[in-house]
């Protein structure tokens, strides 16, 4: 938890403690009863623990701020500099803040010069972006993800061949496996974030850790949002985008209506996917918000809703498989595909290396801001069309 959140929690506990004492005062009692005493002591213990936690974090912030003021020395020449070393971290954050680098600082950053001319993120920033992007983009949780260094391709069995019974003297017919190939290219995803020079320069607003969190949080949220959209409905081949899982997906069922569907039609979609894929651990449903609303309003002959939503941390399920929802999936309308089902692990997300950042101190100088350009390279595509099918509206 952040310091402000801890302080707010401690303030709430202090208010609860005061309420216990005030309650006793209102009843004319100078001594708490047994139940009140137990509650008060428990609150007191938690308040003290929060106080120590706040002091620890404030102390660490001060140490990080002091460390940020330490200049890189000639030790850079004498030992290896890595992206998780203090030399690289200090030089990287100074560059992102639009500062002028010394010779040693420039040399420290040489080990992280990326293909786009920027600098690879510090290990801390990269880990924070990866974790937050994974959390915010559920396709990264449901799909198969990997990191590679160069353009890559995967072979997929499109025909496994067949075996047949034959008489003793009859020839066995050749029926080889057939393979298709899916290629993945480094597709560039980028944005520019602007930071006020006032925040960077005055009153020690940003410590090292805070600046790293500011950069990683900003880019992770934006990357996760646009990635989720393109992993679902990206144009793919011929564009600069990944191929979305809904892009040209196989039709499993066509609804009778253009503005609604039935439970039977969803069941038909479910069984249009081969058993090996619909029963796989990675199988799941994807709905647009409009399609989810229609689903929740479906009732049986006794006027009871068919869908029983999950409670607490349990996700909603349909026919035993988890449901995902996104505004990026097509709305329910003529010929659209607002529902998909299948083994989502057959959608591959390929990341090419880490994250590159470039400071743009002059571009926004007129508004007294520093620009930070961030770039990531990735691609996505279905590996097997048969593993995922869609419901098409009439």
Task: Tell me about this structure.
With about 400 residues, the protein is of the alpha+beta class. It contains twelve helices and 14 strands. It starts with a helix and ends with a strand.
Fold blueprint:
Blueprint: H1 3-26, H2 34-68, H3 75-78, H4 86-96, H5 103-109, E1 119-120, H6 123-136, H7 138-142, E2 144-148, E3 152-159, E4 178-184, E5 187-196, H8 197-201, H9 208-233, E6 250-254, H10 263-272, H11 275-278, E7 283-287, H12 289-297, E8 317-318, E9 321-325, E10 339-343, E11 347-352, E12 356-360, E13 369-382, E14 388-392
Span from first to last CA? 50 Å
Rg is: 29 Å
Helix content: 25-40%
Low-confidence stretches: 69-78
Number of helices: 12
| Largest sheet composition | 6 strands, mixed
Q: Give the integer mean of the pLDDT values.
A: 85
Provide the β-strand percentage band: 15-25%
How would you sum up the global shape? extended
Based on DSSP secondary structure assignment, what is the total number of beta strands? 14
Structural class: alpha+beta
Order of helices and strands: HHHHHEHHEEEEHHEHHEHEEEEEEE
Tags for this model:
single chain; 394 residues; alpha+beta; six-stranded mixed sheet
Give me a quick take on this structure.
The protein is of the alpha+beta class and 394 residues long.
């Amino acid at each position: 938890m952040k310091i402000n959140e801890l302080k707010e929690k401690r303030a709430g506990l202090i208010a609860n403690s005061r309420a216990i004492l005030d309650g006793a005062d209102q009843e004319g009692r100078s001594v708490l009863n047994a139940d009140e005493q137990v509650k008060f002591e428990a609150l007191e213990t938690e308040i003290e623990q929060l106080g120590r936690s706040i002091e620890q974090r404030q102390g660490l912030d001060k140490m990080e701020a002091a460390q940020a003021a330490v200049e890189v020395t000639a030790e850079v020449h004498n030992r290896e500099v890595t992206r998780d070393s203090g030399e690289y971290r200090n030089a990287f954050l100074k560059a992102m803040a639009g500062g002028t680098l010394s010779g040693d600082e420039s040399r420290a950053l040489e080990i992280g010069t990326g293909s786009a001319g920027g600098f690879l993120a510090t290990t801390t920033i990269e880990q924070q972006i990866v974790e937050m992007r994974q959390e915010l983009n559920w396709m990264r949780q449901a799909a198969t993800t990997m990191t590679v260094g160069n353009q890559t391709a995967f072979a997929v069995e499109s025909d496994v061949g067949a075996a047949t019974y034959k008489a003793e003297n009859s020839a066995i017919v050749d029926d080889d496996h057939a393979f298709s190939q899916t290629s993945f290219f480094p597709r560039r995803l980028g944005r520019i974030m602007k930071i006020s020079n006032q925040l960077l320069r005055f009153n020690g607003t940003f410590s090292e850790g805070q600046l790293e969190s500011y950069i990683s949080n900003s880019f992770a949220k934006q990357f996760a949002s646009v990635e989720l959209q393109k992993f679902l409905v990206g144009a793919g081949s011929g564009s600069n985008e990944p191929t979305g899982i809904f892009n040209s997906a196989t039709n499993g069922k066509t609804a009778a209506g253009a503005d609604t569907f039935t439970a039977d039609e969803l069941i038909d979609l479910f069984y249009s996917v081969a058993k090996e894929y619909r029963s796989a651990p990675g199988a799941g449903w994807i709905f647009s918000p409009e399609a989810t609303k229609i689903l929740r309003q479906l009732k049986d002959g006794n006027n009871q809703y068919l869908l029983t939503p999950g409670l607490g941390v349990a996700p909603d399920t349909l026919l035993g498989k988890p449901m995902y929802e996104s505004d990026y999936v097509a709305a329910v309308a003529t010929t659209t595909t607002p529902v998909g089902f299948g083994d989502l692990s057959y959608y591959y997300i390929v990341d090419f290396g880490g994250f590159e950042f470039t400071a743009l101190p002059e571009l926004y100088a007129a508004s007294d801001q520093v620009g930070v350009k961030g770039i990531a390279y990735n691609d996505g595509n279905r590996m097997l069309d048969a593993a995922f099918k869609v419901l098409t509206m009439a």
